[in-house]
Amino acid sequence: MAFVTLSKEQFEEILPPEKSEVINDISREYIYEIPTSVKNLMVRIYSTVDKSTNQTRDRGEDAIRIVFWDAKNDRPIGKGKKILRIETSTTIKERIQKRIDIFLKDAPSQVMIDWDYVKAILTSRHIKSNFALDMYAQLETRGCLSDKQLAYILGETNPKGYQTFEAKVKQADPFFYHSYMNEFSDEENEIEEERIAIQEESSEVVAETPNLPEVFSVPSDIHLIPTYEYDDWSYPFDHFNPVQSAVMPHRKKDCNMVIGANTSAGKTICAELIMDYVLKVLKKRVVYLSPLKALTQEKYSDWQKRFPDEDIAILTGDYILSKEMQEKLNNARIIALTSEMLDSY
Fold first, then answer.
1. DSSP state, 252?
2. Which stretch is the leader sequence (predicted)?
3. Could you tell me the pTM of the whole model?
């Protein structure tokens, strides 16, 4: 399963002739739009072609994204689809063109109001309003809102002349669109596919130093700590699992820690237990580093709710390290970034 590198010219040759390039000073990659048969409805394509090199970014960093775009209101409709830059039984060219054809065919059936986007605005940490929470509850119950209600959510100004909730969110977070579109992966098993592909490209590593002694292993009869004893956060289960219970006594120690455990063993919660202490007691910052953009985006989204009082920033290959972005990173208490961006910050 080989990764594919494309130049700007090669990528543009894949797209239909009616494409146009989107001028976006914030984005680090080239973005293209294709008109559909519906007025003001475009198909937007995030190419992963880096503006600084005119080539797609390093393998495994991210995927090509295709999404419907409301041109009149300049916002996405849905989270779109992703295409991994790998060769499988079909070529990357065939998969991109097939995906575009499907989007163009589906355009007439699209609803211009993306209710998931509306929910993302109403639940944004930048909106602290009972009115917003009430509308979110109605949207969850009924599946839609009235035009009068939407007038307070979408657009620039509401009927009373003040900023809409969308305008407030966009002002507080210029990268809100990116965060929303990447919050969940619409392509099934994308993260797992990336892991498998990377593993297949890897070679065996032989240690040059003697095996280090085992420091600590989780005993099978370890006492499971009840979650009600943990004051910093209320978890929706009764007890921490064996790995988390083993980590708990060490969370306040000034030491390096490596946790070796299976997938789904609860390592993220182990990190959160330590983060609570670092952020609230030590008053220090936290950096989350991941080799995969999808994982970085997932944690960024999750921690908006897990750490609602903290400023959280994200830095992946999608973002240009502008002065505004630099300031946001400098002020953030939690930074989620991909490994290739570590040297950039």
1. T
2. none
3. 0.48
User: For the structural domain made of 212-341, what CATH number should be given?
Assistant: 3.40.50.300
Going from N- to C-terminal start, the domains of the chain cover: 8-112, 212-341
Spatial CA neighbour of 164 closest among 145, 137, 143: 145
User: Residue 267 belongs to what H/E stretch?
Assistant: helix 267-280
Whether the CB-CB separation of 41 and 76 falls below 8 Å is answered with no
What does the pLDDT look like over 36-71, one tens digit per residue?
999 889 999 999 999 999 998 765 456 899 999 988
Secondary structure string (H, E, C) spanning 114-152: CHHHHHHHHCCCCCCCHHHHHHHHHHHHHCCCCHHHHCC
- The pLDDT tens digits of the residues spanning 181-221 come to 765 444 444 444 445 444 444 445 555 555 555 566 777 78
pLDDT in tens, 122-169: 988 889 888 998 899 888 888 888 888 999 999 899 999 999 999 999
DSSP run (H or E) holding 31:
strand 29-35
The strand pair at 312-315 and 334-338 is best described as: parallel
175 Cβ contact partners less than 8 Å away, ≥ 6 residues apart: 26, 314, 319, 325
**Contact predicate 166/155, CB 8 Å:** yes
